[in-house]
Amino acid sequence: MGEPAQRRLIRKLDLERFLSQVQPHPSPRASLEQYTTSESAAATMLYLAAYTYEDIVGKRLLDLGCGTGRLALAAAFLGAESVVGVDIDKTAVKAALSNSVSVGFRDKIEWVAGDIDAVSGKFDTVLQNPPFGVQKRNADRRFIKNALELGDAVYSLHNHPVFDKHLLGKLKANGGQPLRVSASQFMQRFVQKHGGQVEAVYALPLTVPHMFDFHTKTKKEIVVDMYIIKKKG
Ligand SMILES: C[S@@+](CC[C@H](N)C(=O)[O-])C[C@H]1O[C@@H](n2cnc3c(N)ncnc32)[C@H](O)[C@@H]1O
């Protein structure tokens, strides 16, 4: 697929169609929480970042914990100036590279196999769907800290603090459109401590397919919170 004109508004449906070509991880590991962000959640995240907050088009992007590259590729598709995707898992990075070749964005994205601690440089915007810390407690905190050191704006997905059936129902009734919610007190404090400020939080539905032996259902729907964080000063 060719590269779209940088400042042309792209329809969300076209972004979702583009993302449906991105292949998931061939052998995901539970220990690294290698869930692929669903097409609709990734499209919602990127769409808000691009057209409500103007943090994608013409910007230098970093995707931390890029997996097979869904968020990085979406940013390239929407018109980011340059994109770097980093993941600790070599198989994921290989799949991301192959995805970028098949969708025609190989030249715009640099893929790096390594820990997020090894990343240096300055970026306008960091995108991440970090491990939620289900397997390794607090795994997402290091991602927030590093993202704030590397970027001016951070878009980060986190588990909603409690399973909220009512909110999930509202989101589904709303056709999957995100809803503004409050930041948790912990996140407010943690972000502030690391030099940032929570600008907004949106709840969105996320479907997690059956991927690992300990999953008991064919799929599970959960609510995730997308934090939009800006560096102070
Ligand atoms: C929930 S997955 C998200 C994948 C991808 N960003 C997406 O949205 O589909 C989290 C990713 O973080 C990666 N990861 C976990 N710990 C990491 C670390 N310390 N450094 C770099 N990547 C890491 C995992 O390998 C995994 O691909």
Structural commentary:
This protein has 233 residues and is α/β, with parallel strands linked by helices. It has a single domain, classed as 3-Layer(aba) Sandwich (Rossmann fold). 32% of the residues lie in helices and 26% in strands. It has seven helices and eight strands. An eight-stranded mixed β-sheet has the order 3-2-1-4-5-8-7-6, with helices on both faces. Helix 2 runs parallel beside helix 3 (70-78). The longest helix has 14 residues, at 39-52. The termini are far apart. The model has no long low-confidence stretch (mean pLDDT 92). The protein binds S-adenosylmethionine. S-adenosylmethionine binds at residues 32-37, 65-67, 70-71, 86-89, 92, 115-116, 129-131. The site of S-adenosylmethionine has 21 residues, from helix 3 and strand 2.
Features:
binds S-adenosylmethionine, single chain, Rossmann fold, 233 residues, globular
What overall form do the CA principal axes indicate?
globular
State the end-to-end distance.
Answer: 39 Å
Q: Strand pairing plus helix content: what structural class?
A: alpha/beta
The helix/strand order is HHEHEHEEHEHEHEE
Question: What value does the Rg take, in angstroms?
Answer: 16 Å
CATH class: Alpha Beta
List the strand order in the largest sheet. 3-2-1-4-5-8-7-6
Mean pLDDT across every amino acid position: 92
Strand share of the residues? 25-35%
Outline the biggest β-sheet: 8 strands, mixed
Name given to the CATH homologous superfamily: Vaccinia Virus protein VP39
- Which ions, cofactors or small ligands are bound in this entry? S-adenosylmethionine
Helical percentage: 25-40%
